[in-house]
Amino acid sequence: MGCDPAGTMNNARFFYGDGASRSGNVVPPVSVPGSPNQQMWFRGAASFDSALDLLLKLGMNEAELIVFTGGSAGGLTVFLHLDHVAERMKTEAPNARVVGEPVCGFFADLPTDGYSPQNESYPVRMQYVYNMQKTAPSLSTACQAYYGSDAWKCIMAPHAAAFVATPWFALQSRFDTWQLGNVAQLPCNFANSTGCTPAVWADIQAYGPAFMGQFSPYQTPDSKNGAL
């Protein structure tokens, strides 16, 4: 979203589809497992920059304020690529202030609480995405240098956020139902409480403090960031 000198507000929506929060860099198409005649493209980084190119041609170069926002995987996109947007705008929209608003995009780096094998955990799946989609060129070089052989962690918000220089304000729940089902992998139907045994409820209550242990370091009184 950008505001021009006359106070006009404009919105542009990017539809999501690369599976890596706009980070993919696989040039040739990839055959779909089990369906060799079908192919997929993982060019999230290129499509993202192409979208920015178009918006700049349409007038975003004259914006005074650019709020880069997104929800869920789009929220993670903000953590991963906010600095990239801000860096481009320094020269291509020099009058613009760039800020981020990630919505429910801070997915914790936590185990499965024992309900599923750890080799099927969310961090393991993100490590696979990092490697399969060749995301390294799209992610923070400082983050990847810091983690070295564990550079794949830089596709996860708890690790990437430490290297984001551009201010952001997150809208985030510490009891996000997607994370309870897909990070903690709790065997519970949160819509009608089916399968929510006392033990599962206890794990739900424990998830909040565990999540905040990773999120709260970015919300210190002297931080440039905020959250609700």
Strand order of the largest sheet: 2-1-5-6
Largest sheet features: 4 strands, mixed
* Overall number of strands: 8
Q: Let me know the average pLDDT.
A: 93
Structural class: alpha/beta
User: Rounded to an integer, what's the Rg over CA atoms?
Assistant: 19 Å
| Amino- and carboxy-terminal Cα gap | 20 Å
Oligomer description:
single chain
Shape: globular
What percentage of residues falls in helices of 4 or more residues? 25-40%
Q: What is this structure, in a nutshell?
A:
The chain is an alpha/beta fold. It is 35% helix and 16% strand.
Structure description:
- This protein is α/β, with parallel strands linked by helices.
- It is built from 7 helices and 8 strands.
- The protein has one domain.
- Helix content is 35%, strand content 16%.
- A 4-stranded mixed sheet has the order 2-1-5-6.
- A hairpin with a 5-residue loop joins strand 1 and strand 2.
- It is globular, with a radius of gyration of 19 Å.
Topology:
Elements: E1 2-3, E2 9-10, E3 26-32, E4 35-42, H1 44-57, E5 65-71, H2 73-92, E6 97-103, H3 122-132, H4 141-147, H5 157-160, E7 169-170, H6 177-182, H7 198-215, E8 226-227
Parallel strand pairs: 5-6, 7-8
Antiparallel strand pairs: 1-2, 1-5, 3-4
Fill in the keyword field for this structure.
228 residues; alpha/beta; four-stranded mixed β-sheet; two-stranded antiparallel sheet; 7 helices; globular; disordered N terminus
